[in-house]
Amino acid sequence: MHLVHDENGNLIVHGDHNHEDHHDHTHHHEPKDENLAVLTYMLQHNEHHATELVQMAEKLEKEGFSDTAAEIREGVENFHKANAHLKKALEALNK
């Protein structure tokens, strides 16, 4: 994982990177900053997927897959519960 700044100066998580030639380099990020970036990314990521899953459930419901749609909606409720905990953790870390 690698941290970069977006156009607003916010830290964001960037995917893993590998170097063919190995060299030593250090990253000057505080652990708190890294954790803030990861928590922010995960929260946004989960919210995005929850939205996609709601849309999927709606389509499946229309196609007659009510039981499947209900399971997806229940899963989305759990996403929201988990996100509430991530949000609290993010707020606590931001203090």
Helices and strands, with pairings:
Layout: E1 2-5, E2 11-14, H1 31-62, H2 66-93
Antiparallel strand pairs: 1-2
Helix pairs in contact: 1-2
Commentary on this structure:
Pfam families: DUF8180. This is DUF8180 domain-containing protein. Residues 37-93 form the DUF8180 domain. With 95 residues, the chain is mainly α. The protein has one domain (2-93). The protein is 63% helix and 8% strand. The mean pLDDT is 82.
Summarize this structure as a short list of keywords or feature phrases.
single chain; 95 residues; mainly alpha; two-stranded antiparallel ribbon; 63% helix; elongated; DUF8180; DUF8180 domain-containing protein
* Major sheet details: 2 strands, antiparallel
Structural class call reads mainly alpha
Helix fraction, binned, reads 55-70%
Overall structural domain count: 1
Termini separation comes to 25 Å
Percent strand equals 5-15%
Side-by-side strand order of the widest sheet: 1-2
What's the gyration radius in Å? 18 Å
Q: Which regions are unreliable across 5 or more consecutive residues at pLDDT < 50?
A: none
Count the DSSP helices: 2
Name the shape in a single word.
elongated
Total number of β-strand segments?
Answer: 2
Characterize the quaternary organization of these chains: single chain
Secondary-structure element order, N to C? EEHH
- Mean pLDDT over the full residue set: 82
